[in-house]
Each structure stands twice: as structure tokens, then as C-alpha cells.
Amino acid sequence: MTYSIVVRCPRTGEIGVGVQSHFFAVGAIVSWAEPGIGAVATQAMAEVSHGPGVLERLRAGDAADAALAGALAADPHGAARQVGVVDASGRTAAHTGSSCIADAGHAIGEGFAAQANMMAAPGVPQAMADAFAATDGPLWTRIADALDAAEAAGGDIRGRQSAAILVASGDPAERPGHGILVDVRVDDHEDPLREVRRLAELSVAYARIDEAEQLLAQDHPEQAVAIYDELLSAHPTNTEFAFWAAVALAGAGRPQEARRLADPVLGSGDGDRWRALLARLPPAGLTSQDVVDELLR
């Protein structure tokens, strides 16, 4: 079985899809999203082209139901398909073909469509719907909570293997390839839901590093320090976070705190690599030579 949920957050406008299956690399097949356009889950005897195809129809102005109907009308094997769609306005649609392996079904509501096939027990789509409606916070966490609820309701009759979470901005991307906020996949794992949640959390943290690096380049070390403090509080053993936090702290005139973080990194087994990287930062405009000298003292 595959169970999935496509969603839109009414507060942020973000759109996303989450999926789990006892099948290898399910995220490469099922999950589709485009910033400011919508999200699609295509599963069961999946026709992968329904992902980009439905998004193309949404981009052309179709609402979720019309986009899905148009795609299915051109599919001679629609009875074997299961598809969920949410558009950028939060309108939803879902289809469970009559040939999908039982138990199969879907549940739709404002801003979400949840679908499942080969369920161990009925009720998985509604469990996802209820969990999504009952939770708050970042969209990726609400998706993860919905997937956990699906598993608790019985999940896949075959077990678990792979999972994915994909979240896109609610605004159209200004440039191709931009606007994807979370894109993590677990292709083969004994506990894919736990692992995909861990990766999603780490993905969000690394996005914050990009923000902090931009602040460093703009000569705002104190603001960068605030971000690194937050990251290190959540990920105290992450070497990457510690290195960049040390650079930011030194640039903000806090050398003792900077060296406290930098010394274990620079003195580690990979210390030569980190010291070499540190020396490359001033030419790139990410810090000053004084900061490098301070950290290498």
C-alpha cells in the first residue's frame, strides 16, 4: 500500500505532499509540487506523468478538480490509478480507481486530500485528515504527523520501506529551481517515517545556514550569530553548524565563544580540511583575515 496526503497551509500558503509505502524510493514516483501552483500525489498502479501533467493543467488555470479530471480523461487505465491534488488556492480533488487494491479510499477537505490503497485496515485516509486538521506549526511537521497517524491506523498491509516529504512555497518561483522549501526522501529504511522526519528537520536547519551565510556576507555577524545559536541549541554535535557559528561569533567580536566552538572542529581528524576552508573565506567575502587569524590562534 501507499498512503499520501497533499496539503496547503492557509496561514503561509505553502503547499506540500507526504507519502509512505512498502516500495522502493516512493518519493521519486508519487510526490510532485510546484511553488505557487499546487501539489500532486500519483500512486496505486501509478502513472508518473499525472504528477507533472496535473501541475501543467493547474499552471494553465485549471482548479484542482478540473486538472485531475482532464488528466484522467486521457488515461485509459484510470481505474487502476489513485491521485490526490491540491492547488495554490487550497482547492482539492482525489480519485481512487475501482481497480485499486483494497482497502483503498480517500478523504478530502479544505486544504487537503488524503489517499491510501492496500490498507491493512480501513480508516487510514481519515486518520491522516484528522491529524492534519488537529495540528499546527510548520507544514512539514503537520505532514509528518499525518503520516504517523496513517501508520498508527494500520498503514500498509505489507509494512514500511520508503517515505518522502516535499514542501514548496505558496508563491510562484521567481527563477526556475527556486521555491522548494523541504525535499527529503528515504528510499529504503526499516523505519522510514522516523528517518524522513529527522531529515526534514535537518533540511530546515541547513536552510537557516544559507540565511546566516548571507548575513555574514552582508556584514551582519550579530544577526548570523542569533541563527547559529538557535541551530546549535537543536544540533549541538553538528560540526558544520559549529564551524560557521565560530566564524560568525569571531566576526561579532566574541572571540572566546568563537574559539570554544572552533577549537574542537579545527583540532579534529578533519581539522586540516576545516583550516584550509577557513583560509578561503576572506577572498570570498564571508569574513575578514582578522577573524581567520583569531580562530587559528
Task: Give a summary of the structure in a few sentences.
The chain is α+β, with helices and mostly antiparallel strands. It is 44% helix and 21% strand.
CATH class of the largest domain: Alpha Beta
Mean pLDDT: 95
Radius of gyration: 22 Å
N- to C-terminal separation? Answer: 58 Å
Specify the helix fraction band. 40-55%
Number of helix segments? 11
- Overall number of structural domains: 2
Strand order of the largest sheet: 7-8-1-2-9-10
The 3D shape can be described as elongated
Percentage of β-strand residues: 15-25%
List keywords for this structure.
Glutamine Phosphoribosylpyrophosphate, subunit 1, domain 1; 297 residues; 6-stranded antiparallel β-sheet; Serine Threonine Protein Phosphatase 5, Tetratricopeptide repeat; alpha+beta; 2 domains; elongated
Report what the structure shows.
The protein is α+β, with helices and mostly antiparallel strands and 297 residues long. It has 2 domains: 2-186, Glutamine Phosphoribosylpyrophosphate, subunit 1, domain 1; 207-295, Serine Threonine Protein Phosphatase 5, Tetratricopeptide repeat, CATH 1.25.40. The chain has 11 helices and 10 strands. The protein has helices at 27-30, 50-59, 64-73, 124-134, 139-152, 192-217, 221-234, 239-251, 255-266, 271-280, 289-295; strands spanning 2-8, 15-21, 31-34, 38-44, 81-87, 92-96, 105-109, 112-116, 162-168, 180-186. The strands form 2 sheets. Strands 7-8-1-2-9-10 form a 6-stranded antiparallel beta sheet.
